Task: inverse folding
């Protein structure tokens, strides 16, 4: 089992920055990748960014060049640095972890990000 705890959401003006963090505990040895998804009101949850245990990153086109995902210790904590925020980035952001032993996906409780225009 893997537990995920997020922090760092809040209210920011358009053009501003926020940094989200997600800390994993439990069977962290089994984590192959961690990432972020978001869900805006009335919309489906969508992929934002991910990083593998070997530090390979992937981004949604809508956030490329504005958001950066990184993990200083490669296993336990993942950060999402969000710059040049837009009102359309407003959503609940969820941390996700993909484990391989056994294969499973885990979710955090979500953190609200609100970007005002």
Result:
């Amino acid at each position: 089992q893997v537990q995920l705890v997020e922090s760092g959401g809040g209210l920011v003006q358009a053009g501003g920055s926020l940094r989200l963090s997600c800390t994993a505990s439990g069977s962290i040895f089994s984590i192959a990748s961690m990432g972020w998804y978001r869900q805006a009101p009335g919309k489906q949850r969508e992929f934002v960014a991910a990083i593998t245990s070997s530090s390979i990153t992937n981004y949604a086109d809508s956030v490329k060049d504005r958001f950066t995902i990184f993990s200083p210790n490669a296993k336990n904590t993942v950060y999402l640095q969000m710059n040049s925020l837009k009102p359309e980035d407003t959503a609940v952001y969820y941390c996700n972890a993909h484990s391989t032993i056994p294969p499973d996906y885990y979710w955090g409780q979500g953190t609200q990000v609100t970007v005002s225009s």
